[in-house]
């Protein structure tokens, strides 16, 4: 089942999300291996060629509607991050693999979060997202709490969150308003 055109590329003010392609392997591998960005991500090893092979296998999950992996780009096409929706089912999805690099524009965290959660809630019509954050990632934990995610548990490694479609729709206009104000400043 091919992915609908409306899921292939989504844009807002400063950013676009576009589905990952095998040609993105070098960018993804470089980003995931960079110590400036990978401190709070699951460990990655291997080569860019291994990443390309992983993307090829991922494309099968994408075609089956089980996973969507996006490159986050500035409007000029410069890649600046990644985000993934996986474990997609009727009860929701897992949101993760979110990473932004130094090429991101101001407001990229909020804009990429609103865009990517919007895929799950608006485009796919799912009721909730779940995700985990490493305990040491204080910046991300604070962001998710401000964003409206609810902590559902923790262990020695992670804090677990849930973010509902209801909360997303309640806050979406406020988030977009914040992005407009930042763009006009």
Q: What can be said about this structure in brief?
A:
The chain has helices at about 5-10, 25-35, 50-65, 110-125, 140-145, 165-185, and strands at about 10, 15-20, 65-75, 80-90, 90-100, 130-135, 150-155, 160-165. The protein is α+β, with helices and mostly antiparallel strands. It starts with a helix and ends with a helix.
Radius of gyration over C-alpha positions, nearest whole angstrom: 16 Å
What is the end-to-end distance? 43 Å
CATH class of one domain: Alpha Beta
- Annotated CATH topology of one domain: Aminopeptidase
Overall shape: it is globular
Strand content: 25-35%
Label the structural class: alpha+beta
What series of H and E elements makes up the topology? HEEHHEEEHEHEEH
Strand order of the largest sheet: 1-2-3-4-5-6-8-7
**What is the architecture of one domain at the second tier of CATH?**
3-Layer(aba) Sandwich
Question: Fraction of residues in helices?
Answer: 40-55%
- Extended strand count: 8
Count of individual helical segments: 6
Question: What does the average pLDDT come to?
Answer: 90
């Amino acid at each position: 089942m091919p992915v609908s055109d409306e899921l292939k590329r989504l844009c807002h003010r400063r950013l676009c999300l576009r589905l990952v392609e095998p040609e993105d392997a070098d960018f993804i591998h470089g980003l995931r291996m960079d110590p400036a960005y990978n401190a709070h991500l699951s460990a990655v090893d291997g080569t860019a060629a291994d990443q390309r092979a992983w993307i090829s296998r991922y494309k099968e999950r994408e075609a089956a509607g089980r996973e969507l992996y996006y490159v986050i780009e500035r409007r000029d096409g410069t890649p600046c991050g990644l985000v993934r929706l996986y474990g997609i089912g009727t009860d929701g999805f897992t949101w993760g693999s979110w990473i932004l690099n130094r090429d991101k524009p101001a407001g990229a965290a909020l804009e990429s979060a609103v865009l990517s959660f919007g895929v799950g809630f608006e485009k796919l019509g799912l009721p909730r997202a779940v995700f985990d954050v490493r305990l040491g990632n204080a910046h991300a934990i604070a962001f998710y709490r401000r964003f409206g995610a609810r902590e559902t548990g923790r262990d020695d490694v992670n804090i677990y969150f849930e973010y509902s479609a209801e909360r997303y729709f309640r806050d979406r206009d406020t988030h977009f308003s914040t992005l407009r104000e930042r763009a006009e400043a």
